[in-house]
Amino acid sequence: MKTIFEPFAIGPVTVKNRIVRSATLERLAENGRITPAVVDVYETLARGGAGLIITGMAAVGPYAGVGPTMIEAHHPEFVGEARRLTDAVHRHGAAVALQAAHCGLRAEPDADGFVWGPSPLPGTANSRALTAEGIRRVAAAFTDTALRAKEAGFDMIQLHGAHGFLLNQFLSPHFNRREDGYGGSFEHRARMLFEVYGRVRAAVGPNFPVIVKLSCSDFLPDGQTEDDFLRLSRRLGELGIDAIEVSGGLTAEKETSPIRPGIDSPEKEAYFAPAAKALANEAPFPVISVGGYRSYGVVRDVIENSAVAAVALCRPLIADPDLPNRWRSGDTATSECICCGRCSKPHGHFYCKQKMAGRS
Asked: Of 61, 63, 88, whose CA–CA distance to 148 is shortest?
């Protein structure tokens, strides 16, 4: 039987325990550059005991992100600045992954005022469909980001294929209305992700893990379905993916957001776990479950009583970065996080407003 505080492997990388810090955009970069405040966030998380830490989104190229407070992996100073981050995490025995992302239709507009995705977004005047050459440039940008992450000392790369960002936009018929080889059928909608993964894998080689974050469903009538998710995951397994983190929903849609408020009982936790368990039952790679975890008992149950390899949290680790150490010591009290979504960053650092207001 698996336990929370035993190691597990992602490809050739050994992770010291089964608690993963899931990515959340920290918005602490300055003009895309990694600041001391960014490094401090990740060293604090590593000191707190998480086994694997996944950074907030890093933009793979110009106009791929949401603004200057998001890390830009294409910045000329990225490798040297990121090395300070990875060294800080490794000092505490944790592994660290860079989350590589292109925000697509949700990115900041380019110099001509346009945003780019699989298809123009209905009701907008400034959205455009990527050309085949544009798609190739995006795939090349993901590849370059993976190589730079490897050079900077990251243990692995995570491709962000969830939550309504570019790779998910191509996967979802809600966004993808193309009529060429990148739209229409499931195989065509999945083509961009497969091409990005294939190019990244060829560039970094077999000993640098490539993992992906996927939505189990968009939870929209015309969106990506759980059947699509399972087909996609099986194919990625055949191609050699090293792990999949299972999330869901679209961050820009309140009704389908992956962040659900008011998690005040175990019954409200682990809301994407059924999809993660279904995949883990058949997958030849580790499956990471994320979504609403707050209590030790729920985390332990998923780890010990299913094929899921690890559980990922983020907002509880904003409220209490030392939560993994606390649980390991025998203090198994539930995180104080209620997923209110009010995480903030006064004085260049994000923190828990609820805790600072006296909930503790």
From this structure: 61
Amino acid at 10: I
Tokens of 221: 């009538």
Report the alpha-carbon distance of residue 28 to residue 357 in Å, rounded.
22
Q: What is the pTM of this model?
A: 0.94
Q: How far apart are CA 342 and CA 19, in angstroms?
A: 23
Domain boundaries, the chain: 8-359
The pLDDT of residue 131 is 97
Question: Given the structure tokens 């292109």, which residue do they identify?
Answer: 102
Q: How far apart are CA 137 and CA 131, in angstroms?
A: 10
User: Could you tell me if 22 and 313 are in contact, meaning their C-beta atoms sit under 8 angstroms apart?
Assistant: yes
Q: Which CATH superfamily is domain 8-359 in?
A: Aldolase class I (3.20.20.70)
Task: Give the other-Cβ count within 10 Å of 12's Cβ.
Answer: 12
Q: What is the dihedral of CA 83, 89, 95, 100, to 10 degrees?
A: -50
The 3-state DSSP class for residue 45 equals helix
| Segment 293-318, tens digit of pLDDT | 999 999 999 999 999 999 999 889 99
346: Cβ–Cβ under 8 A, 6 or more apart, which residues?
none
What are the tens digits of pLDDT across the range 11-47? Answer: 999 999 999 999 999 999 999 999 999 999 999 999 9
- Strand 19-21 and strand 71-72: pairing? unpaired
Q: Which of the two residues, 314 and 259, has the higher pLDDT score?
A: 314
What's the token pair of residue 223?
């969106």
What is the mean predicted confidence (pLDDT) over 160-188? 97
Q: Are the C-beta atoms of 115 and 66 separated by less than 8 Å?
A: no
